[in-house]
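If you are new to this repository, start here. Below is one unmodified record pulled from the training split, so you can see the exact layout before writing a loader.
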Amino acid sequence: MALADDKRNKPIRNPAPPMAKERGGWLAKIAPGVHKLVAKRETPENLWVKCPDTGEMIYRPDLEAALWVTPAGRHMRINPQLRFAYTFDDGRFRMLPSPKTADDPLNFTYSKPYKENLAAARKATGDQDSMSAAVGEISGVTTVMLVHNFAFVGGSLGTAAGEQFVQAAAEAVKLSAPLVVFTATGGMRMQEGMLSLMQMARATVAIQSVRAAHLPYVVVMTDPTTAGVLASYAMLGDVHLAEPGALIGFTGRRVIEQTIRETLPAGFQTAEFLVEHGMVDRVVTRKELPRVLGSILQTLLMGRARLSAA
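And here is the target side for that same chain:
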């Protein structure tokens, strides 16, 4: 009886319905791939870019076609590869090799080891350091160009970037070509201490070698150009150009106001303000830069030709 009771009280499981293992219904049977056509498509995260000035969402392909200049006129930061492609004739250029320098000469550690910061920056940007160099033609003029990458540790100047500047200047002298530098930097690289500061002097000496060969040296300041770079090779050009709205200054607005205890005028340290006060020769849009640079280089080289003939 006990056994009979156990059988009687044992829960009865409902049998599985037919075809329970087949999923998707009749549509899946006749067209297994149809669900891929009607599935919700995810929008790429970087398909839209927000304008820093207006908050407007801009379709990325439209922004790329506009050379990364927003409808509001903001000239957004770009990497060296794009800068070379936008500036050189037909986007054709030859990269100069990156110099080999010690990655962490001071064994610097703050929140994390400096070598880890460098590794992360190299992985994110694809560049070896904050400055890249290339050779190409601008309006038919063979030119050596240096470009800061602000995305690489704030475009800071360290030993590798300083060595890149020196080597690019030597290449300009070798090719009898002008030297053009696009600056976008927060200044010196504190992780390299005094070695970083020494690059200001090395760059200045390199510029003198370019001048001794009677070759043009032109600076194009982009957003931002500050601190030790501004205090050295960024202000030693034969001609100083700047992109619209670029922040240009040695130190921040707040620090200056606290020091002099004065309220600074509106637009202080912008490219337009500095044109009015004689520190920058001209503000040029990104689209116009190749033509303007080409005209300047051709004009300066005419003077060199006359000097050589004399």
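Two things worth knowing about this chain: The chain has two domains: 45-74, 77-309. The first helix runs from residue 2 to 9.
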